[in-house]
């Protein structure tokens, strides 16, 4: 009985400052369903599915991968339009707060954005079933685990506030990102047209800078509850650091090591002949 009483007290604290307009919406009264689904997701992609795939050949799922990514492009496009139509087409801006001219549809769009974080779990499940384990990184898992609870907090307490700016820019980036994944499903013949892959990461880095600035402004002038503002600032900083590290190690050119040279600039190779080498002409990409 005491544990149930403690749980009730926990929910009372959570619900004290909730937006009453979403009080009875599916999965909104408590964060426990969101946390539970995320824990099940982690169990699947880190323990259950890898064990299942251990002695099996990777699945291909080419048609499903294309259809899934196409659906995500359409869904992300709808979300982006929804955030714009819900108030970001003509935002209110002052030196204090940057906010949408929110209408009643903004809350529904924000809620659908929150639910979309669960459909994105399919990304990781496909990676595991296709044995693309190099793509199931710490960054990837952290991102997919944090976003559902962050989105739940936003919808629970400030569903039509300046926080929806993050949903706006993230939806746009997902249009670009899932378009890339959709095209890459066609295989090697499409790779020469996908030279813009690294710019998806650049867009993500810009997103986190904008998110950090937006959240810092909200914290400074009280446009959002202080706890939510600082949570957003923390996550924006962590994401920027992790994505920048990924970008640096994936796309930044590295120099090949060169053998010691004599004073005349001539290098020996296996004692057979002399070759003039300009170290600035030798570079390679470090790829994951």
UniProtKB/TrEMBL annotation:
Record GO biological process: fatty acid elongation, monounsaturated fatty acid; fatty acid elongation, polyunsaturated fatty acid; fatty acid elongation, saturated fatty acid; sphingolipid biosynthetic process; very long-chain fatty acid biosynthetic process
Keyword Lipid biosynthesis applies: yes
Membrane as UniProt keyword: yes
EC number: 2.3.1.199
Organism: Psylliodes chrysocephalus
Family, as annotated: Belongs to the ELO family.
InterPro entries: ELO_fam
Name of the protein in its database record: Elongation of very long chain fatty acids protein
Membrane topology type: Multi-pass membrane protein
Compartments (UniProt record): Membrane
Any Gene Ontology CC annotation: endoplasmic reticulum membrane
Keyword tags: Fatty acid biosynthesis, Fatty acid metabolism, Lipid biosynthesis, Lipid metabolism, Membrane, Transferase, Transmembrane, Transmembrane helix
GO molecular-function terms, A-Z: fatty acid elongase activity
One Pfam family matching this protein: ELO
Residue stretches spanning the membrane: 25-44, 65-88, 108-129, 141-159, 165-187, 199-222, 228-247
Catalytic reaction(s) noted: a very-long-chain acyl-CoA + malonyl-CoA + H(+) = a very-long-chain 3-oxoacyl-CoA + CO2 + CoA
């Amino acid at each position: 009985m005491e544990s149930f009483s403690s749980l009730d007290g926990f929910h009372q604290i959570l619900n004290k400052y909730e937006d009453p307009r979403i009080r009875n919406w599916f999965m909104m009264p408590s964060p426990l369903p969101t946390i539970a689904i995320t824990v099940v997701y982690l169990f699947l992609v880190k323990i259950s599915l890898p064990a299942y795939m251990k002695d099996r050949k990777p699945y291909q799922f080419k048609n499903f991968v294309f259809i899934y990514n196409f659906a995500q492009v359409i869904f992300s496009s709808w979300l982006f339009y929804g955030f714009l139509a819900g108030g970001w087409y003509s935002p209110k801006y002052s030196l204090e707060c940057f906010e949408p001219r929110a209408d009643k549809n903004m809350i529904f769009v924000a809620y659908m954005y929150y639910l979309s974080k669960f459909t994105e779990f399919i990304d990781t499940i496909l990676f595991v079933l296709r044995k693309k384990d190099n793509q199931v990184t710490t960054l990837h898992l952290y991102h997919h685990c944090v976003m559902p609870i962050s989105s739940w907090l936003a919808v629970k307490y400030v569903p039509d506030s300046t926080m929806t700016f993050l949903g706006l820019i993230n939806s746009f980036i997902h249009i670009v990102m899932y378009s890339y994944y959709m095209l890459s499903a066609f295989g090697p013949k499409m790779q020469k047209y996908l030279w813009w892959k690294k710019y998806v990461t650049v867009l993500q880095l810009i997103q986190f800078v904008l998110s950090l600035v937006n959240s810092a402004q909200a914290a400074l002038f009280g446009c959002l509850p202080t706890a939510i503002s600082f949570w957003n600032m923390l996550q924006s900083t962590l994401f920027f650091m992790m994505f920048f590290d990924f970008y640096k190690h994936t796309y930044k050119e590295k120099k090949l090591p060169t053998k010691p040279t004599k004073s005349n600039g001539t290098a020996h190779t296996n004692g057979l002949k002399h070759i003039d080498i300009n170290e600035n002409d030798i570079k390679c990409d470090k790829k994951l």
